[in-house]
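[worker-b] picked up task from shared queue
[worker-b] task type: protein-ligand structure
[worker-b] ligand name resolved to magnesium ion; SMILES cross-checked against name lookup, match
[worker-b] sequence length check passed
[worker-b] input payload:
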Amino acid sequence: MRDALDNPFSPGSDTIPEVWAGRIEQLSDWRDVVRPRRLAGLPERGRTILGEPGLGKSTLVRKIAQEASRAGDWVTPQLRIPAGSDPLKLVADAVLKLADAAGLPASREKKISDAISRVQAVAASGVSLTLRGVDGPEPYSALTELLVEVGVAAIAHGDVMALIHIDEIQNITDEKALSQLLIALGDALTHEVEVTVPGGARVSRSLPIAVYLTGLPDFEDMAGARKGATFARRFKTTTLAAIDDLDLAEALQTFVLEGWEVPDGVGGTASVFMAPDAAAAIVDLCRGEPFLFQLAGEQAWYAGASQTITADQVRQGWRGAQREATAHVERILERLPAREKQLLEAMADLPAAERTLTRIAEKMGFKKTTDAGPTAQRLDTVRGIIDRGKPYSFRHRAVEAYLTSDWPKI
Ligand SMILES: Nc1ncnc2c1ncn2[C@@H]1O[C@H](COP(=O)(O)OP(=O)(O)O)[C@@H](O)[C@H]1O
Ligand SMILES: [Mg+2]
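[worker-b] inference finished, payload out:
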């Protein structure tokens, strides 16, 4: 009991954590808005989910994809874009897999077999197809065409969706590739086909296709600014923030009330409990960061062998995790442009009640208050690290704790 094999916490792994917390809004957006609307042929934008590292972007959409897959939807595996790679190849490959799931390769229609071979060419050569000036349509239009066929097949099948998830989209640094990709996906999302409804009338409807893009907030600068209005019309962007303490506490409530079931080593099961103050300590230490939540839970699990995880064990486990918690926050801070980091430090230096733009700008050595404005705006709207209320406050509570206290030390 309480060893590496039965520990349900999973910091940083690529699985969906067994101990799930919150993100209710985003899950219900999929269940109650995106899926039903697209299934019904109504227009609904793709979703872009951005946020600082470790906030659970990849995991969230992985969970959505798992649900979709269980509902019978055709789902691509999460497509993670490696830095500097050609995203069109990856996405073309994924669209071919969707076509497979839709049974398209078996079709005798020439239009469909042509579309498949064009996308195979994109999967092989990617964006360089355009650069080489190869005759024929641009790579993106081949992708769109095949996606449309997948969508049409989904309508014929009834009650299924095609779901595409592209992760680490900030890694698409090639402007041409990015714009081709966004156009390909956007065109498929806005494409309408004519269908016959009972009674014989012809009406147009959108395709049952959903697209999720996830990545760091820096993507906003690339897509938001340059592709501008078209991108915003086709994708709705959410920036994830820390998970609510109440949601984290609720996630641990199973341990407190019923215990977490594990194999007892002799063919049966046993339950691992958590003392209420131990659960509260985990919630407090992780500061709303899902990665740190998993880390704190994992370390507490290993910190003893008793049937009940105690608050002492949580603290003992956390001591072993402190360096990793520090590294986690430092990674976030180090990625920031110097100005943004400087603003956060200036803000942290001020007493909470005095965190106004005027005082912050003064501390940063600006002559005019407004000079600090754009930096503050980015930290708020693009990154979700601060909230420009009256006074300013931190939304990223681990960053706040790190800059204003001894945290993660206990
Ligand atoms: N809603 C959640 N509840 C509990 N743990 C989560 C949740 N979302 C993410 N995690 C955990 O947080 C860690 C980071 O998640 P990840 O999706 O990799 O973050 P990101 O993609 O934003 O960098 C993972 O260990 C994951 O298990
Ligand atoms: Mg990720």
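[worker-b] attaching auto-annotations
[worker-b] The chain has 16 helices and 13 strands.
[worker-b] releasing lock
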